[in-house]
Specification:
Oligomer: heterodimer
Number of strands of chain B: 11
Largest sheet of chain A: none
Shape of chain B: extended
Order of helices and strands of chain A: HHHHHHHHHHHHHH
Radius of gyration of chain A: 21 Å
Shape of chain A: globular
Largest interface: A-B, 30 and 26 residues
Number of strands of chain A: 0
Helix content of chain A: 55-70%
Helix content of chain B: 55-70%
Largest sheet of chain B: 5 strands, antiparallel
C-alpha cells in the first residue's frame, strides 16, 4: 500500500520514462529482420525503422561493428544519465548502486591492463562509461589491493567494499586480481541486496530474487573456474556472495565440488536451478551454461515489468538493454564476418 | 443529388488508378507526378522488408548524401554563417547521371572541409600547448617569488647543498590540469605519496578553448615538489592518469624568461597562420552556404522518388513497374499529361499506361481548403477525418464556430483586441510564412489559427454590441427607452433602481440591450433569463440543422431505411420536446402580457412529463387547449422511441431472411454442420446489431435533453465573462475613480492601477477566458452538433508531393537564415 500511495510523488515520472524506453526494446520480429540482413548497412537501414531511429545516421558507411557498439552504449548511457540526473533519493542511491558494478569492472580492467604494460590512455576508452569516476585513471600507481584502497579508492563510493582487502599486501598478479574482483563483487552484491531489503515493499520483492540469482550465478561460476587452481577451499568460500538461494547449504556443498558434474548435481537440488542444466552441453545445438544463465536472467528481468511502483524496472531496463546491445553486436559481428551459422545465438527479449 | 454540387460539401471524387511504367521512364514519370502532387501511391510491397526492396542502393546513396549535407550544414551553423531566407526551390534532378555529379561534389567538399578542419585542429592544439607552456612559466614566477618567503626556505637550503647529494635534492614537476580535477588530483597525490609531495595550483585567468570541441575550458597550473626518484615516478603516473599536461620549466628565472620570450614570438606567428586558415575555411563554407539548401532539396526529391518507386510492384519480366494509387477524378487528365511528359523527357519507347480500376478499399478523403477554411478543417479533422463523401461540417463551422464563441465572449473591446491580434498576424502573413519554423509551438498554433482568431474577434465584438457591453460598461447609443420611476428625483450612484416593465417602458430600444439595464438592480435576473432562452434556441437550431445534414447524408448514400426509421423519429422526438419548449419561449415573448399572468416555461415543461394529462391553472396557462397539445406531444415523442430502436433491425432481418430463403432454395445440398455454424454466427451478429441500436437510441434520447442542457454553457460562459470583467473593473478602476485624491498624486497611483487592470484584462479576460470560450465552442461542435450526423471514419488524402515533403524537412530549417 505504501508504495502505491506515495511512490509516484518522487519516482512516478521516472518509472513512466523507463517504461517508455522499455517499449523501444526490439521484438522477436525485429530480430528476425536483423538476422536476414546481408550487410551492416542493411542493418542500419532496418534499425532506422525501430525505436533506434537515426542512431547511426551520422556515421559514414561502410559501418564497422565497433561504431555500432559505441553508439548503442552511448544511447544507453544517455538514457540512464538522463534519469540519474533528475531523480531524487532513494532512487538516486539505487541507480548509483547499479553503477558500482560497472566501476568494479573498470577497476579490474585497468589493473589487468597496467599489469600487461598497456598505456592508460589506451585503456581508458575501453572502460564502461557508466562506471567512470575521477580517480579511475590513477589506478595504475597501485601495486597491491591495500595500496589501491589507501591511495585511490578510499574517497570513492566503492570504499566500503574494500573492507576485506585493506590488509592485503600481496602483489597484484592475474590470480590476485581475479580474487580481488570476486571479493569486491561479493561485498557489492551483499550490500546492494541489503539496500534493496531496506527499501522494502515491491522493490525488495522484485530486486532480491534478481540479486540472489546474480549471487548464485557468481558462486557457481567461481566454483567452475577454480577447478584447476591451487586455491584453498576456504578461500573459495570467502569469495561466494552470501545472499543467494544457495546460501548457506548449497555453498557448503559447492565449495567441495570437484567437477562440473558435481556442480550440476548440487544445482539440481535447488528448485529454481533445477532446469538450468537442461540442454547444456558441448554439442553443436547445445547451449553454454553462461547462455542459460543469461536466458534465465532475461526472463526474471522481463517479469519485473509486470509489477508497478518499484525500482526493479530501472535495473531490469539497463540489464535488458545491455543484453539487447550484446544481441545486436553479435548479429552485426556475424554479418560482418559473413559467418551466419551461429547468428541465431542471440537471446530474444520480448 | 447532382454531381457538381457535391464538391462543395462533400469530399472530392477519388479514383483508383493503375499504371504500367517502363523501366526507363519510371523515374521521370514519378518526378513529374511529385512536382504536381496528384496521386497517393499505395504500397504494393507491404510484406517486404525495407532493405529487400528494389532501389535500396539508391536509397542508401541518398542517406549518405544527406549525412554529408548534414555535416556541411552543421559546420556552416557552427561558423555562424547566415544565408538569405528566400531561395529558389530547384526541380528534382533529371536523371541519375546528374545526380552522381552532385554526389561526387558533395563528397569532395566534405573531404576538403574535414581536411582543413583537421589541420586547423592540429594547429590549435599546438597553439594551446604553447599557451599552456606560457601560462606555466608565468605561474612558475609566482611560485618561486612566493618561495623566497618561509615556505621556500627549506628547499633553497637544500639547493645550496645539492650537486653530489641527489637524494636530498628537491625536484618539481609543473603542468596544466583541468580546474574541476584539481581537488581529486591533490587528494590522490596526498594519499598515494603519504603527504610527502607539496602541490600548489594557480588559476589561469585567460580563457582557453578546447581545440576539438571548441568549448571554453578552465584550467589551472600546478607545481609539485618532491624528493627522490620513486615519488617522481609516482607523480608522473598520476599526472598521466589524470590527463594533465606536464611542461618542462627551469628553476632559474632568467632561463624561464628566455623561454617565455621565445614562446610569445612563436605564439604570434601561429596566430597568423591560424587566422589565415580560418579565413580560408570560412570563405569555403560561405560558398557552400549559398547552394546548400538547393542541394538538400535536390537530394530530398531524388530520395523521395526512389522511395516511392520502391512501393511499386516489379512485373514478372522485370521490364517495368506496376503502380497503384488514388487520384482525384478531376486530376486524371493532368496525371496522363504528366506521364506523357515524363515519357518524352526520358525518351522511352514504351509509353506509360494509365488505367482506372475499381477498388474495395475506401478512398481517402480530400476537402479543398483555402487560407480561411483550413483552420476550421483542421479543427474538424482533429476529431476525425470525414468518411469519404459524407458532408463536411467544416464549411458550416466557418460561421457557427466564431458565432458561438462570440456569444460566450461578448464584449466589444475584448473582441476588438482579438480581432486586431488576428489581423496583425494576417498582415504579417508573408513574413511569417517563410519563418514558420522559427515560431515556437504556442505562437505557431496561434499563427495557424489567425483567421479563426480574427473572425472570433469580429463575432465577439458583434455580440458585445448586442449585449451592450464594453469592459462591462454600457454605451447609450440610441437613447434609452426607460423612464425613471420618479422623473423628478435625482439619482446618485448609491441609489438602486429596479426596472419594472409594467410602468417604466417606452418604445423598444433600437438594437441590442438597453443601456439602462446596466444600472438596474434586476439586471442579472433579466439578462440570465434572456441569455438562457437564447442558448436553448440556438442549441435547438444547431441540433435540428445537424439532423437535416444527416438526412442529406442518408439520401446521398441511398439509405432509405435510415431516413424513415432514424431521421424522422429523431426529428419528431427532438421537436416535440425541445422544439415545443422553444415555441413556448417565443410565445411568451410575443403574446404573454407581463402585467397579467406570468406562466413559467420550466415548470410547464416539467409538468408536461411528470403529470401527463392533468389540468393547468389558468394563471400558469399560455393558451387555450394547452393540456391537449402537450398530451399529444408527449405521446408522439414516446412512440418514436420504439420506432428508433426496433424498426430498422427488424426490417433488415426480414430482408436478410428473405435473401437466405432465396439462396437456400437454390442450393439443396447444404451441409448440416455448416448450417449450424452459420446460424451461430448469425445469432452473434444479430445480438451485436441489437446492442448497437439500443446504445444509439438511448444515446439520442438522453442526448436530446443533455445536449440542450449542454448548450446552456453559452449562457454560463457569457455570464461568467461579463461578471468577471465587471468585478475586475469594480475592484480596480472603480476604486481609483471613487477614492483617490486627485490633488495629492492620486493620478500617479491611477497609472499603476490602470496597469494592473490592463494586465489582468489581457491575462484573465482575453487569454484565459478566450481559451475557455474557445474550448467550449469546440466541444459544442464536436459533441452536440456533430453527433447528430458525423461519422468521421475516413483517412486523409496525402498525395506524393515534393512541396509536402519539403515542408517537414528538418535539415532545411537547421540552416540559420537572415
Amino acid at each position: 500500500m505504501g508504495d502505491m500511495t506515495t511512490f509516484n510523488i518522487d519516482s512516478g515520472y521516472f518509472e513512466g520514462l523507463v517504461r517508455g524506453y522499455r517499449s523501444g526494446i526490439l521484438r522477436r520480429n525485429d530480430y528476425h529482420n536483423l538476422v536476414e540482413c546481408e550487410t551492416l548497412d542493411d542493418l542500419k537501414l532496418h534499425l532506422q525503422g525501430t525505436d533506434y531511429g537515426p542512431l547511426l545516421a551520422n556515421d559514414p558507411s561502410p559501418l564497422i561493428v565497433q561504431t555500432i557498439d559505441e553508439r548503442l552504449k552511448e544511447r544507453l548511457v544517455h538514457e540512464f544519465t538522463h534519469i540519474r540526473n533528475q531523480c531524487v533519493q532513494p532512487l538516486a542511491q539505487f541507480l548509483d548502486y547499479m553503477t558500482y558494478g560497472y566501476m568494479i569492472d573498470n577497476i579490474i580492467l585497468l589493473i589487468t591492463g597496467t599489469l600487461r604494460n598497456r598505456p592508460i590512455a589506451e585503456l581508458l576508452p575501453r572502460c564502461h562509461p557508466l562506471g567512470q569516476f575521477d580517480e579511475l585513471a590513477t589506478i595504475s600507481i597501485a601495486q597491491s589491493p591495500a595500496e589501491l584502497f589507501n591511495a585511490v579508492m578510499v574517497d570513492t563510493p566503492l570504499a566500503p567494499f574494500f573492507s576485506e582487502c585493506v590488509q592485503d599486501e600481496n602483489d597484484l598478479d592475474e590470480m590476485n586480481i581475479e580474487i580481488l574482483r570476486n571479493k569486491l563483487y561479493k561485498s557489492y552484491l551483499e550490500d546492494f541486496y541489503a539496500f534493496c531489503k531496506k527499501l522494502g515493499g515491491t522493490t525488495a520483492d522484485v530486486m532480491c530474487p534478481i540479486l540472489a540469482f546474480e549471487a548464485d550465478r557468481r558462486a557457481i561460476t567461481i566454483t567452475i573456474n577454480s577447478f584447476r587452481t591451487d586455491l584453498l577451499k576456504d578461500d573459495i568460500e570467502n569469495l561466494y556472495p552470501k545472499c543467494g538461494i544457495l546460501f548457506p547449504e548449497g555453498l557448503k556443498y559447492l565449495k567441495n565440488a570437484e567437477d562440473r558434474e558435481e556442480v550440476r548435481r548440487i544445482c539440481e537440488r535447488f528448485g529454481p536451478y533445477k532446469d538450468l542444466y537442461n540442454g547444456v552441453g558441448d554439442g553443436p545445438n547445445d547451449k553454454t551454461l553462461e547462455d542459460k544463465f543469461f536466458e534465465e536472467e532475461v526472463k526474471m528481468l522481463m517479469l519485473s515489468f509486470e509489477q508497478q511502483f518499484h525500482f526493479g524496472v530501472f535495473y531490469a531496463f539497463v540489464k535488458l538493454k545491455e543484453q539487447e546491445n550484446r544481441n545486436i553486436v553479435w548479429i552485426a559481428e556475424c554479418i560482418a564476418q559473413k559467418n551466419k551459422n551461429k547468428i541465431d545465438n542471440y537471446i530474444p527479449i520480448f | 443529388m447532382a454531381e457538381k454540387e457535391t464538391y462543395f460539401f462533400r469530399a472530392t471524387d477519388m479514383q483508383m488508378v493503375e499504371m504500367f511504367l517502363s523501366q526507363e521512364c519510371a523515374y521521370e514519370c514519378v518526378k513529374e507526378l511529385g512536382e504536381l502532387g496528384l496521386i497517393q501511391f499505395i504500397d504494393l510491397e507491404k510484406g517486404t522488408n525495407l532493405f529487400q526492396r528494389s532501389f535500396v542502393p539508391e536509397l542508401k546513396r541518398a542517406d549518405e548524401m544527406e549525412r554529408r549535407l548534414r555535416y556541411l550544414a552543421a559546420e556552416i551553423n557552427a561558423e555562424g554563417i547566415k544565408v538569405p531566407i528566400e531561395y529558389e526551390i530547384p526541380p528534382a534532378p533529371n536523371s541519375t547521371a546528374t545526380e552522381s555529379d552532385l554526389e561526387t561534389m558533395i563528397g569532395t567538399l566534405e573531404d576538403e572541409l574535414k581536411e582543413v578542419k583537421k589541420n586547423l585542429t592540429a594547429l590549435r592544439n599546438s597553439y594551446v600547448d604553447l599557451m599552456e607552456l606560457k601560462q606555466t612559466l608565468i605561474a612558475a614566477d609566482i611560485f618561486f617569488r612566493k618561495g623566497s618567503g618561509s615556505l621556500w626556505s627549506v628547499p633553497t637550503n637544500s639547493y645550496s647543498l645539492e650537486e653530489g647529494d641527489e637524494g636530498g635534492r628537491l625536484h618539481f614537476i609543473t603542468g596544466v590540469i583541468d580546474r574541476d580535477k584539481v581537488g581529486t588530483f591533490e587528494r590522490v597525490i596526498w594519499r598515494s605519496c603519504r603527504g610527502n609531495v607539496f602541490v600548489k595550483t594557480v588559476e589561469i585567468k585567460d580563457e582557453m578553448t578546447d581545440p576539438d570541441s571548441g568549448e571554453i575550458v578552465e584550467k589551472n597550473v600546478f607545481i609539485c615538489f618532491f624528493q627522490g626518484n620513486q615519488l617522481e615516478q609516482r607523480v608522473k603516473k598520476i599526472c598521466d592518469g589524470m590527463s594533465c599536461r606536464v611542461y618542462p620549466c627551469s628553476e632559474k628565472t632568467s632561463r624561464r624568461h628566455e623561454v617565455r620570450d621565445q614562446v610569445t614570438t612563436r605564439l604570434a606567428e601561429m596566430e597568423d597562420v591560424i587566422c589565415q586558415t580560418q579565413e580560408h575555411r570560412t570563405q569555403q563554407l560561405k560558398d557552400i552556404a549559398v547552394d546548400i539548401r538547393s542541394w538538400i532539396v535536390k537530394v530530398k526529391k531524388w530520395r523521395s522518388i526512389y522511395y516511392t518507386m520502391s512501393k511499386f510492384n516489379v512485373n514478372d519480366t522485370r521490364t517495368g513497374f506496376i503502380a497503384e494509387g488514388w487520384v482525384r477524378t478531376c486530376d486524371l487528365e493532368n496525371v496522363k499529361q504528366a506521364l506523357k511528359r515524363g515519357a518524352t523527357t526520358s525518351g522511352s519507347v514504351v509509353m506509360p499506361i494509365l488505367n482506372t480500376v475499381g477498388s474495395s478499399m475506401p478512398p481517402p478523403t480530400y476537402h479543398p481548403t483555402n487560407k480561411i477554411t483550413k483552420g476550421y478543417q483542421v479543427i474538424i479533422d482533429a476529431y476525425g477525418v470525414a468518411t469519404y463523401q459524407e458532408i463536411n461540417p467544416a464549411i458550416f463551422t466557418v460561421i457557427t464556430f466564431p458565432f458561438l464563441f462570440g456569444i460566450m465572449f461578448g464584449d466589444m473591446a475584448h473582441g476588438l483586441f482579438l480581432f486586431l491580434f488576428g489581423a496583425w498576424f494576417i498582415y504579417k502573413e508573408s513574413y511569417f510564412d517563410l519563418r514558420k519554423h522559427l515560431l515556437d509551438e504556442i505562437i505557431s498554433m496561434l499563427y495557424h489559427g489567425r483567421y479563426i482568431i480574427m473572425m472570433m474577434g469580429i463575432f465577439a465584438s458583434y455580440s458585445g454590441f448586442l449585449y451592450n457591453e464594453i469592459y462591462s460598461k454600457g454605451v447609450d447609443i440610441f437613447g434609452s427607452s426607460w423612464r425613471m420611476p420618479n422623473d423628478d428625483q435625482t439619482y446618485t450612484s448609491s441609489d438602486s433602481v429596479t426596472l419594472d416593465p409594467k410602468y417604466d417602458y417606452g418604445p423598444p430600444y433600437y438594437y441590442g440591450i438597453d443601456p439602462m439595464w446596466i444600472l438596474s438592480e434586476n439586471k442579472l435576473t433579466y439578462l440570465n433569463s434572456y441569455k438562457m432562452k437564447l442558448s436553448v434556441i440556438l442549441g435547438l437550431s444547431q441540433m435540428t440543422f445537424g439532423l437535416f445534414i444527416s438526412l442529406s447524408n442518408y439520401r446521398y448514400f441511398g439509405r432509405v431505411l435510415d431516413i424513415w426509421f432514424t431521421f424522422i423519429p429523431q426529428l419528431i422526438f427532438l421537436e416535440c420536446i425541445i422544439g415545443y419548449m422553444c415555441f413556448l419561449i417565443f410565445y411568451k415573448w410575443f403574446f404573454v402580457d407581463a402585467g397579467k399572468s406570468n406562466p413559467s416555461i420550466l415548470i410547464t415543461m416539467i409538468d408536461m412529463f411528470l403529470s401527463i394529462g392533468s389540468g393547468i391553472d389558468s394563471d400558469d396557462k399560455f393558451y387555450e387547449g394547452q393540456e391537449f397539445v402537450q398530451l399529444c406531444l408527449v405521446i408522439i415523442a414516446l412512440c418514436m422511441v420504439p420506432i428508433m430502436f426496433a424498426a430498422k433491425p427488424l426490417i433488415e432481418k426480414y430482408q436478410r431472411n428473405k435473401d437466405v430463403a432465396d439462396y437456400e432454395a437454390l442450393s439443396y445440398d447444404s451441409d448440416d454442420e455448416d448450417l449450424e455454424e452459420r446460424e451461430k454466427a448469425e445469432q452473434a451478429a444479430e445480438l451485436d446489431i441489437w446492442v448497437n441500436q439500443g446504445i444509439h437510441t438511448i444515446e439520442f434520447c438522453l442526448g436530446v435533453i443533455s445536449n440542450t442542457a449542454s448548450y446552456l454553457r453559452l449562457w454560463a460562459l457569457s455570464l461568467a465573462h461579463s461578471e468577471l470583467s465587471e468585478v475586475l473593473w469594480d475592484m480596480t478602476m472603480y476604486y481609483a475613480f471613487e477614492w483617490l485624491d486627485w490633488d495629492e498624486g492620486g493620478c500617479i497611483l491611477l497609472i499603476f492601477i490602470f496597469a494592473a487592470w490592463a494586465a489582468l484584462t489581457v491575462s484573465i479576460l482575453l487569454c484565459m477566458e478566450g481559451l475557455s470560450a474557445f474550448l467550449h465552442a469546440l466541444r459544442l461542435h464536436w459533441v452536440e452538433f456533430q453527433n447528430k450526423f458525423y461519422d468521421g471514419n475516413g483517412y486523409k488524402f496525402l498525395p506524393f508531393s515534393f512541396s509536402l515533403i519539403l515542408e517537414n524537412e528538418e535539415n532545411l530549417e537547421e540552416i540559420s537564415a537572415i
